[in-house]
Automatic annotation (TrEMBL):
<comment type="similarity">
    <text>Belongs to the cytochrome P450 family.</text>
</comment>
<dbReference type="Pfam" id="PF00067">
    <property type="entry name" value="p450"/>
</dbReference>
<protein>
    <submittedName>
        <fullName>Cytochrome P450</fullName>
    </submittedName>
</protein>
<dbReference type="InterPro" id="IPR036396">
    <property type="entry name" value="Cyt_P450_sf"/>
</dbReference>
<dbReference type="InterPro" id="IPR002397">
    <property type="entry name" value="Cyt_P450_B"/>
</dbReference>
<dbReference type="InterPro" id="IPR001128">
    <property type="entry name" value="Cyt_P450"/>
</dbReference>
């Protein structure tokens, strides 16, 4: 029997913050919770592992914003901070044949061969950035911001090289990306950031049209289905937004969260260093334990839908609660809150999605994070946080789950020991 919770809906704090205590409280009421989004928009959050897996793969759940009732009825203002997630044209907001067409075009350019071929470049860029991290620490009384000097420029550099984005645009695109994923942003700033992001990426596309190269933007411009179908200009820009935002923000958070977890659980780091677990295990456990994306917008039931006994009305905007599912005791046992790189089975999480919209960039994210962590701790085995965990400033978003800064003391450089 479907039920509608009698509890008042949970108002999600647009300024973000650590989601785990909030998730634990909400899960006490069930795997699905009613929530209030910015500007008093009513929605739902699915944060139980099995319920989220069911919901993500359900045939009566859509991504196209035409199924978003409040948006279709004109009740969502242009400057709503989550509007881009709903309205950007691309794979993340397409369904059925349209989604398959777009994913086919993109996946033909985003092949396993291209990802495998990136390993030497990822390794080289990692080593260059570690040099920079060491230099920053030397000039900063032994302390450097690992997020700014390492966790950010690695995935941003790789994704921009992959898509043929010139270096001059990278810092600007990161700033705009931060605004796009922020959930406490003023309406005027949200509108301006989205327009500027589209403008900058249009310049990137125009540059690759003039001078095609061995990059994904050039490949996407040239890509055709057998019947001659191609990405429209709007779909191409939307695809670039997806990969540039998701392709660096999520991996940035993943690397940052993994370093925080290992610094707080030195015994787990020792297990990896002693060979009892691998760096890939660290990546998978971080994805589960501290998902780089907390609540991802949006999916919409195309009919009234019951999930884990709770009714989700047709047209409701639903958040995928990856951070909640990752620590669900019903799926991960009574020690779900414990960071354990030897957890069996490893990698049982939904943090990279499930079903037709499973993250196309997952192999690249795993490659970057694994290489980054292995090389970081091989060179700086005594690396530790320079401040207490509770002093770290959190992201101003309930979408991305991490901190804005990560001051560390790298300690002795093993290359010089």
């Amino acid at each position: 029997m479907s039920t509608v919770s009698s509890d008042p809906p949970h108002r999600i704090d647009p300024s973000g913050g650590c989601p785990h205590a909030r998730n634990a409280r909400l899960r006490e009421g069930g795997a699905v919770a009613a929530v209030v989004l910015p500007d008093d928009v009513r929605g739902m959050l699915v944060l139980g592992h099995e319920a989220l897996k069911e919901f993500l793969g359900h045939s009566d759940v859509a991504k196209d914003s035409r199924h978003f009732a409040a948006l279709a009825e004109g009740r969502i203002p242009e400057g709503w901070p989550l509007r881009t997630f709903a309205t950007v044209r691309g794979m993340t907001t397409a369904d059925g044949e349209d989604h398959r067409r777009l994913r086919s075009l993109v996946s033909r350019a985003f092949t396993a061969r291209r990802v495998d071929a990136l390993r030497p470049r990822v390794e080289a860029l990692t080593d260059e950035l570690l040099d920079g991290l060491a230099a920053a620490a030397r000039s900063g009384d032994g302390v450097a911001d690992l997020r700014a000097h390492f966790a950010l420029p690695l995935p941003m550099g790789v994704i921009c090289e992959l898509f043929g984005v010139d270096a001059e645009f990278r810092e600007l695109l990161h700033r705009l990306s931060n605004d796009v994923v922020a959930t406490n942003i003023e309406p005027e700033r949200a509108v301006a950031a989205n327009r500027e992001m589209v403008s900058v990426l249009a310049q990137v596309v125009a540059s690759r049209e003039r001078e095609p190269g061995d990059d994904l933007t050039s490949a996407l411009l040239a890509a055709h289905e057998a019947d001659g179908d191609r990405l429209s200009r709007e779909e191409l820009i939307g695809t670039l937004i997806l990969f540039l935002v998701a392709g660096h923000e999520t991996t940035l958070n993943l690397i940052t969260n993994a370093v925080r977890a290992l610094c707080a659980h030195r015994e787990q780091l020792d297990l990896v260093c002693d060979g009892a677990a691998g760096w890939a295990d660290v990546v998978e456990e971080t994805l589960r334990w501290d998902s780089p994306v907390s609540y991802f917008p949006f999916r919409y039931p195309t009919r009234d839908l019951t999930v884990d006994g709770t009714l989700i009305p047709k047209g409701t905007p639903v958040l995928a609660g990856y951070s909640g599912a990752g620590r669900d005791p019903a799926a991960h046992g009574p020690d779900a809150d414990r960071f354990d790189v030897t957890r069996v089975p490893p990698g049982r999480h939904l943090s990279l999605g499930h079903g037709a919209h499973y993250c196309l960039g997952a192999p690249l994210a795993r490659l970057e994070a694994t290489v980054a962590l292995e090389r970081l701790f091989a060179r700086f085995p005594a690396l530790d946080l320079a401040v207490r965990e509770e002093e770290l400033p959190v992201n101003a978003s309930f979408v991305g789950n991490s901190v804005r800064e990560l001051p560390v003391r790298p300690g002795p450089d093993a290359r010089h020991g």
